[in-house]
Amino acid sequence: MTALREHSRPDQLDAMARFGLTGDGRLGLAVPTLRALAREVGRDHELALALWDSGIPDAQILAGMLAEPARLTVEQMDHWVAGMRAWDVCDQACTHAFVKSPLAWEAIPRWAAREAEFEKRAGFALLAVAAVHQKQRPDADFLARLPLIEAAAGDERNFVKKAVNWALRQIGKRSPALREPALTVAGRLCERSEKSSRWIGSDARRELSRRP
C-alpha cells in the first residue's frame, strides 16, 4: 500500500470519474504504473487477497495482476466480484486473473445471472476476454454462451449493456464459424423493443459486418 500511495495522482480523480473510474479511496494510479509495480512484485497470491480486501480500486486492480490464477477458488472469485464498484476493476480482474483460472468458464453463466451491476458485467466481460484469450476452447462452447447474451440484452444499465455488447462482438470476431451466429443474434436484438437490445445488436452488427 505504501508504494501505491507514493504513486497516487489525486489531481486526476475528477477526470477519471468522468469516465466512470470511481470507487471509495481511489488513488488515481495509471494502469501502466500498476503493471510496473506488478512486474516488480511478481505473482503473490496472499498479497493479492490482502490488496483486494483493502477495498481501494487501485489496489484491487493490482490484486488481479498479482493473483495466481491456478490458486483462485470459487469462493475467492465470487468474493471479488461481489466487491466490485467500478468497471475498470472488473475488467482488469477478468483480464489478468479470472480468464487464466480453470474455474473461469463456469463462472460466466453464474455471474451473468447476477443482479448486481458489476457482478453481471463480470460475467460478460469474462466471456469477451475468454473469446480472445482462451484459444484452445472449441467454438461450440462460445456458441452455447450466445443465449446468455440474448437473455441479458434488455438490461439498460450502462456497464452491463456495454459488456454484453463486448462479448457478442468478441465471439463474432473469434472465428468465421462464429461470425454468422453472432450476426444472427445481433439481428434478432435489433428487432426487440428494448433500447439496450437494439443498441447492442446494431453496434455488433455494424462491426461484424465490416469483417470479410
Automatic annotation (TrEMBL):
Q: Where is this region: Disordered?
A: 193-212
Pfam families attached to this UniProt entry: DNA_alkylation
Give the matching CDD domains.
AlkD_like
Q: What is this protein called?
A: 3-methyladenine DNA glycosylase AlkD
